[in-house]
Structure formats: C-alpha cells, structure tokens
Write a structure and sequence with these properties.
With 273 residues, the chain is an alpha+beta fold. The protein folds into two domains: 116 residues, FAD/NAD(P)-binding domain (3-Layer(bba) Sandwich), CATH 3.50.50; 87 residues. The chain is built from seven helices and 16 strands. Helix 1 packs parallel to helix 4. The longest helix is centred in the first third of the chain and has 12 residues. 27% of the residues are buried. The model has no long low-confidence stretch (mean pLDDT 91).
Length: 273
C-alpha cells in the first residue's frame, strides 16, 4: 500500500490500545486502518498482563473462550513481601467480573488474536512496517497521517486520527500536544530467569528499603522486573554483574540458585518509566 488512501479512522500504533480500538470500530462498521511500524508483534518484556476489566470486555464481545484457549497463566492474586512480612496484597477472585484473575499472556499472542478477530470485518485493516512520520494538515485541521513503508511513502486521509503510538508518540509531538510530566523517579530492568517446580505459582513482589523487585510467572521462566532509580543503569553496570546477581538473590532468595543465568547486560532490557 503506497500513495494516498482514505479511511474514516486511521490509528497510529498497533499496541493493545490501537488494536482493540480498531476492532471495536470495525465491529461498528467504521472503515479503520491501523499503522504499525514493526514487521510483527514479537517484542520482549512488554505488558503481558490482561486484567479482569479487559477480560470482561472480551467476554462482552463473545470472544473470551477463544482468547483463553491460547496459552496463558491465571493469577487470582498477587503476593508481596515487605521486609520479613509476607502477605497477599491483591485478591482478584472477589471482583464482580466474569474472570477473577489476571491472565498472563505474551503480548504478541494477544495482539495477533485481536488482529485475527478484526480481519473478520471488511472495514478493518492493519498495515505492518508502516512508520508514522508526520500529520497531514489543512487550514490548521489534522486530516491525515504520513508514513513510510518498504514500498514507499504513504499518505492516509482520515476523518479521525488516533495516536496510540506510545510514550514517544509522533502523533502527539506533531500535533503539538503538551506532555504532562508526572515525574516518576524510576526505571525498570526486565530480564528472565528459569522457573522451577517448587517455585511459587502466583506473581511475587518484594519491597525492601530502596528496592522493588517483581516476578511474573511465565510458565517455564520468571519475567523479573527490578525497579531502579531513574538513570542509574550505568551506575549498576559499573558495579559489575556479580554485584547485580547478589542483589537479585538477596531480594528473591529462592532465585539464588539460578542468578548465574545472568551472564551479560545485553538481555537485561531497560524500560524508561
């Protein structure tokens, strides 16, 4: 797809928000085009939690049984440890929803599911490898999006343009919308460690003095999130991997026997909050 096309709604960004909106609009008969800059949805350490409220919407759409047929883990609650005090901090099983749990599912599976469901409607299209670069404006009004694709430039004229392209949104920037900084003083390091049969089943959070460490059950491995002070990754790297492994083992003692799986900084992904 190159040149110029016209749709009723053009959505920049094929993440959960963009794909879900595209599906809902297509069900209502709206001609919608979702532009996603990557070639596929396969990315590590994205938000892989589908919350009870989202599962309720999926149920209302009549798609819950199909979604839960995909590989996932159910978490009816979240445990946390504050120093020596261990307790359940969240119990989803008491919610007045169809699903009293969080579903842990790789985000790429969820997005592929939404794309597949959307493809049932003739008014739904997703264009991969389409990177939004600018907005089309006429007389001060936004009337479309410009994007680059492997086949050449693309201009999409649309009655409605939606920016769902993340924290570094091109749409927001080109529209001149101000960002409200909340001043979150932290970043998160995401990495994986193997999971053993004797390990806990549900997600675990560890809150210690100046440290927050979370572990999400992904079946055969833990997706670990280590909250650090904003901009302090370089300082941690300077201290060396042995010190980092020791800190992880101290925060999650049952992982001590496998922290040696952390062999380099490369697979430890930085999420800027």
């Amino acid at each position: 797809m190159t040149g110029r096309v016209s749709v009723q709604c053009c959505i920049a960004g094929g993440g959960p928000a963009g794909m879900m909106l595209g599906l809902l609009l297509a069900r209502a008969g709206v001609n919608v085009l979702v532009l996603e800059k990557h070639a596929d949805f396969l990315r590590d350490f994205r938000g892989d939690t589908i919350h009870p409220s989202t599962l309720e919407i999926i149920h209302e759409l009549g798609l819950l049984e199909q979604l839960l047929a995909l590989p996932h883990q159910k978490a009816p609650g979240i445990n946390a440890q504050f120093g020596d005090l261990a307790l359940t901090v969240v119990d989803f099983s008491t919610l007045p929803t169809r699903c009293g749990f969080i579903a842990f599912m790789p985000q790429w599976d969820f997005l592929n599911f939404l794309a597949e469901q959307g493809s049932r409607y003739p008014t739904f299209r997703v264009l991969m490898e389409a990177e939004v670069t600018d907005l089309v404006k006429l007389a001060g009004t936004i009337v479309g999006i410009r994007a680059t694709t492997p086949k050449g430039p693309l201009e999409v004229r649309a009655d409605l343009v939606v920016g769902a392209d993340g924290r570094h949104s091109v749409v927001r920037d080109k529209a001149g919308l101000a960002v409200e900084e909340l001043g979150a003083p932290m970043d998160v390091l995401w990495f994986g460690l193997s999971r053993r049969a004797k390990d806990p089943e549900i997600p675990v959070g560890r809150f210690d003095r100046g440290r927050i460490f979370i572990m999400l059950n992904r079946g055969d491995y833990w997706q670990c999130g280590f909250v650090i002070s904003k901009g302090s990754r370089a300082q941690l790297e300077a201290q060396g991997l042995p010190a980092y492994r020791e800190t992880v083992g101290r925060l999650a003692p049952f992982l001590t026997d496998r922290v040696d799986e952390i062999q380099s900084w490369e697979p430890i992904k930085l999420l800027t909050v």
